[in-house]
Recover the amino acids of this structure.
């Protein structure tokens, strides 16, 4: 009887350890729930903010009228504002809900750009981050729980490949 209890405790411990060892592969929403908040309220891309309308005068005067999709997706509309900046809207709305930036000259509000290393990200954004892996790529992410924003830095051998700034519901 005592031996069965010890074996059961050992098996449960191994399973729990395994789960926490592989947490890097859990979904964004898992990480968002357990990561402390970071203020991302000033984040923008070239003066454009989440929730700005893609057909607003501010965007049209800067980039032109955006109408061609940059990719086919059943849930969202994707558009290039210009080379290196892609935005997303819901299918039935015109408000920007995601930025995907791979322009090596464009910095985040806190000064991160494509090519920067993860130690610089942590230095500028702080220790309240999560790490995960998607499509074989290491990612460092931050969550603003008040605004429901998230910024993720996708990392390759040379540093940041691109960053994605969006609402946490984007998944």
């Amino acid at each position: 009887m005592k031996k069965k209890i010890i074996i059961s405790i050992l098996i449960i411990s191994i399973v729990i350890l395994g789960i926490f060892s592989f947490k890097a592969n859990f979904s964004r929403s898992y990480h968002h729930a357990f990561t402390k908040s970071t203020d991302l309220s000033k984040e923008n891309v070239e003066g454009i903010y989440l929730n700005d309308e893609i057909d607003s005068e501010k965007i049209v005067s800067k980039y032109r009228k955006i109408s061609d999709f940059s990719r086919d997706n059943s849930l969202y509309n994707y558009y290039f504002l210009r080379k290196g900046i892609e935005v997303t809207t819901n299918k039935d709305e015109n408000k920007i809900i995601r930025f995907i930036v791979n322009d090596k000259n464009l910095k985040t509000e806190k000064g991160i750009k494509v090519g920067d290393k993860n130690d610089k990200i942590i230095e500028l954004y702080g220790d309240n981050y999560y790490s995960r892996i998607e499509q074989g790529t290491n990612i460092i992410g931050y969550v603003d729980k008040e605004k429901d924003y998230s910024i993720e830095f996708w990392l390759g051998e040379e540093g940041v490949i691109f960053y994605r700034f969006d609402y946490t519901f984007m998944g």
